[in-house]
Design goal:
The chain is of the alpha+beta class. It is 41% helix and 14% strand. It binds flavin mononucleotide.
Length: 166
């Protein structure tokens, strides 16, 4: 997929189909995160894949929208300080996923203490965000519109409000 089409058509999606994501797609998603640039190339992140259903149930209780985690096919906790670096890493993962038809949503942490406890992390090992992935419950074809059409339909402030020439 064209990069700008992927950016313009990507929406954070919370309802996932009951279809597993092939291992090679999962690997590509994680590799896209690994490839993100970071300040001084420090790469201060780890990607915790929430596998067991028991852990997943407890992780769900630590985010704002538990059903996002409960219904996802892939749940990745980004262990990192929230920063530009972790943001780049997560956006890379979500765009690589969308390129393979996999939708996603970032999930903020509602109960950091509970999450640390479930994942056996110390206070020096914060989780920046939990990203949920899956094939969409409702198919959305990025090719059905041009990037410009997707851009015009996006629920975003107009560019004129954001850009200032100085
Ligand atoms: C840092 C961050 C935290 C977010 N936390 C949540 C969340 O806890 N639950 C949720 O459903 N969506 C969450 N979102 C998704 C936002 O609601 C979403 O990016 C925004 O509404 C735009 O959605 P759209 O791309 O579908 O237009 C989060 C997004 C970001 C960047």
């Amino acid at each position: 997929m064209d990069t700008f089409l992927a950016i313009a058509s990507k929406r954070d999606t919370r309802k996932y189909a009951d279809r597993s994501i092939p291992d090679e797609v999962v690997r590509r998603i994680l590799d896209a995160g690994r490839l993100a640039g970071s300040a001084s190339n420090r790469q201060r992140w780890r990607f915790l894949l929430i596998g067991s259903s028991e852990v997943r149930a407890r992780v769900a209780e630590a985010v704002y929208e538990p059903d996002n985690v409960r219904g996802a096919q892939l749940v990745v906790a980004i262990q990192s300080r929230p920063s530009l670096d972790s943001g780049r890493c997560v956006q890379n993962m979500m765009l690589a996923a969308w390129n393979d038809g996999v939708v996603s949503c970032p999930n903020g942490i509602a109960d950091a203490d509970k999450l640390r406890d479930v994942l056996h992390l110390t206070e020096e090992e914060p989780v920046a965000i939990i990203v949920t992935f899956g094939y969409p419950a409702k198919i959305r074809d990025p090719m059905s519109r041009t990037p410009e059409e997707w851009s015009a339909r996006a629920d975003r402030k107009p560019l004129d409000e954001l850009v200032e020439r100085i």
